[in-house]
Design a protein that fits this description.
With 673 residues, the protein is of the alpha/beta class. It has 21 helices and 30 strands. The chain has a seven-stranded mixed β-sheet, sandwiched between helices. The relative contact order is 0.12. The structure holds 5'-O-[(S)-ethoxy(hydroxy)phosphoryl]adenosine.
């Protein structure tokens, strides 16, 4: 079976194979856009010199830099004893300190004029809407925290959250944080199987869900998936399920296990003092795909994550008190955690949440919302921008977008054409664009322009955030100082970095710290991305160098999809690669050998696609499946994915094929036989 064991460090994709066509386009990209003077005038960081000053200060003494900010920007119940304890690869920040992120996101604003400011503005897909002020959100969070306590959830118990994009998702997260119960949010598009795996790995004690959610004019039956995940004692640690009523469709409620949110919430007390958390107490686990079959639970802790998301939100989005800020991500991903919930609320901002997505019945919905609420800051993914380009300029052009002052992107490289469209059609050539590079593991944005300070180039995430010592190195850890490219690493710990893989510190070490050995005693965090620096030192991130593909900005492990495929009785072996796709960035292409007695057919292809949807979720559904009676392997039995990638993208197979065990396999694959 083509599934790697956990103990094995997979080969990296050769940089030359990955980036060749793109290097040329970078070298040709010489457009530079200075921050608009009007913007810089009022920006938190208003000039390149100001950025450089901060960067140099942080570089010279990162510990003092973060300590000063922690003191100034967060509220603490008790101050720390030590700022940084770095025992590579394990880090602790602000040890001895006590705080609570829900206090920093809510209570501290109640003492100011922000008490009655909108914390969350929510727009439902069917057109319903709701606004929660900081005082109202605080009340809801305290009540829900008491509901959780009433069901026996204690500090340290993990709570699963499997929700549509409704305010209750944020309320549940903040309530967990308030009582010290780490949450693990599972994206609502994942299947029951994927949900079960995460609940089992996290040993979740309770699940918060909804009867369903609205998406693309349909409903998604979330509670039904939870039932499936829990049937036959599928996740034995789960004792209770809390269900928000959203779609009002008929669902099954098990009276011993399931409870309606609204019934318990209405009688719950609104008095719930925040639990004093140690700086390093776990705040949440968020699962993400890696190079092996099993998603890894990325662990973030309290103080460092709070500080890092707070500072990055403040400076990168240049938050002003009257801004309406909108990040279109789902709370099921890290972007939703850091830049819908924790970062904006810690800053006392107004964060907009939208349940829906553009759809045939309302392709202009995003621009309607910008107009309706006067959105000032808009943060989305390149995939969404490419899809919006397809829908046509007439949609944004028919709305008043004059409130917008800053645009951002995240999740994958943005192609310069999409950047230019965003700049011209949405930003009307007046809004700076911030292309933010970061990861679930990094907690917050790492490489990004600061909008009032950094000249931008379409397609480049530009320069590291102050305090982030990013670099590009070769496999021995030597810096690559010319433009030829290498592996993106970070050379010094930062507060928002992941602490470990939940329950598997060895995997943490192997995945992030062993591909590239420490250089002169300095540990290098390996991000798994290939990148180039141009002559101005700007970073151009090219994409993953491991077996992770990015479909519509969502990270999927090829091994994860392969294990889903081989769990189907017709499949003997599967190899999955990414193929470039105009809108989604990459599309999943699966090569499959069938069991001897199985006949290939289109019906079987559809059945297999459906099978993957059932095992993981619709985001992992292969775009194309090709049957083959063998897969290209080296003599030692490793699947040669490089060849499959070329075949999938219709390119000539180039490079060395001498290690191929059976050369006739290639011809057969080419002809699709
Ligand atoms: C990719 C999402 C290029 C990258 C926040 C990274 C990007 C992975 C960018 C993390 C960007 C994210 N330019 N590539 N601006 N932002 N990526 O964990 O490959 O879902 O390693 O976090 O997305 O994906 P994740």
């Amino acid at each position: 079976m083509a599934i790697a064991s956990d103990a094995f460090i997979p080969d990296l994709i050769q940089l030359s194979a990955m980036t060749q066509p793109t290097i040329e386009s970078i070298l040709q990209e010489d457009r530079v856009f200075s921050p608009p003077a009007e913007f810089s005038k009022t920006a938190h960081i208003g000039s390149f010199e100001a950025y450089q000053g901060l960067y140099d200060k942080a570089n010279a003494d990162p510990v003092a830099f973060w300590e000063e900010l922690a003191d100034k920007e967060l509220d603490w119940f008790e101050k720390w004893d030590t700022v940084l304890d770095w025992q590579p690869p394990f880090v602790k920040w602000f040890e001895g300190g006590k705080l609570n992120i829900s206090y920093n996101c809510l209570d501290r604003h109640l003492k100011t004029w922000r008490r009655n400011k909108a914390a969350i503005i929510w727009e439902g897909e069917p057109g319903d809407s709701r606004t929660l002020t900081y005082a109202q959100l605080h009340r809801e969070v305290c009540q829900f925290a008491n509901v959780l306590k009433g069901l026996g959830v204690k500090k340290g118990d993990v709570v699963g959250i499997y929700m549509p994009m409704i305010p209750e998702a944020a309320i549940a997260m903040l309530a967990c944080a308030r009582i010290g119960a780490p949450h693990t949010v599972v994206f609502g598009g994942f299947s029951a199987e994927a949900l079960r795996d995460r609940l089992v790995d996290g040993k979740a004690k309770l699940v918060v869900t909804a009867d369903g959610g609205f998406r693309k004019d349909k409903t998604i039956a979330l509670k039904q998936e939870v039932d499936k995940a829990l049937e036959n004692d599928g996740a034995p640690t789960v004792e209770n399920v809390l269900v928000v009523q959203r779609t009002k469709e008929d669902i099954h409620m098990d009276s011993r296990r399931d409870h309606w949110w609204h019934e318990l919430q209405k009688d719950a007390s609104a008095d719930c003092p925040p639990e004093p958390m140690d700086s390093e107490d776990m705040l949440f686990i968020l699962y993400t795909s890696g190079s092996t079959g099993k998603p890894k639970g990325v662990v973030h802790t309290t103080a460092g994550y709070n500080l890092y998301t707070h500072m990055t939100t403040k400076w990168i989005f240049d938050l002003k008190d009257d801004d309406v800020y909108w990040c279109t991500a789902d709370v099921g991903w890290i972007t939703g955690h850091s830049y819908i919930v924790y970062g904006p609320l810690s800053n006392g901002a107004t964060s907009l949440m939208y349940e829906g997505v553009p759809r045939p019945s309302n392709p202009g919905c995003l621009w309607d919302i910008v107009e309706k609420y006067g959105v000032n800051i808009f943060y989305t993914a390149p995939t969404a921008i490419r899809a919006l380009i397809k829908l046509g300029e007439h949609l944004p052009n028919a709305r008043d977008l004059s409130s917008l002052r800053l645009l951002g992107t995240v999740g994958e490289p943005i192609n310069p054409e999409a950047w230019m469209w965003y700049h011209r059609v949405i930003g009307k050539e007046r809004c700076p664009i911030i292309d933010t590079w970061w990861q679930t593991e990094t907690g917050g944005v790492m490489i990004t322009p600061l909008p009032g300070a950094t000249p931008t180039k379409p397609g480049s995430a530009t320069l590291p955030f102050p305090g982030i010592l990013a670099d590009i190195v070769d496999l021995e850890g030597n810096p690559v100082d010319d433009t030829s490219g290498g592996y993106l690493v970070v050379k010094h710990p930062w507060p928002g970095m992941m602490r470990t893989v939940y329950g598997d510190p060895d995997r943490f070490r192997r995945t992030y710290w062993e591909h590239i050995p420490p250089k002169d005693g300095q540990y290098l965090y390996f991000a798994g991305d290939g990148a180039h620096k141009d002559k101005d030192g700007y970073f151009w991130v090219m994409g993953r160098v491991d077996d992770v593909i990015s479909v519509a900005g969502h990270r999927l492990g090829t091994m994860e999809i392969e294990s889903a495929l081989v769990s189907h009785p017709a499949v003997a072996e599967a190899a999955v690669v990414g193929r470039p796709d105009e809108i989604k960035g990459e599309e999943i292409f699966a090569f499959i050998t069938l069991e001897a007695d199985v006949e290939p057919s289109d019906a079987l292809k559809n059945e297999l696609k459906q099978h993957v949807t059932g095992e993981i979720g619709a985001i992992a559904r292969p775009g194309e499946i090709r049957f083959s009676d063998a897969l290209p392997k080296t003599r030692s039995g490793k699947i040669m994915r490089r060849l499959l990638r070329s075949l999938a993208s219709g390119q000539e197979v180039s490079g060395d094929t001498s290690t191929l065990e059976d050369r006739s396999v290639l011809d057969k694959l080419r002809s699709g036989a």
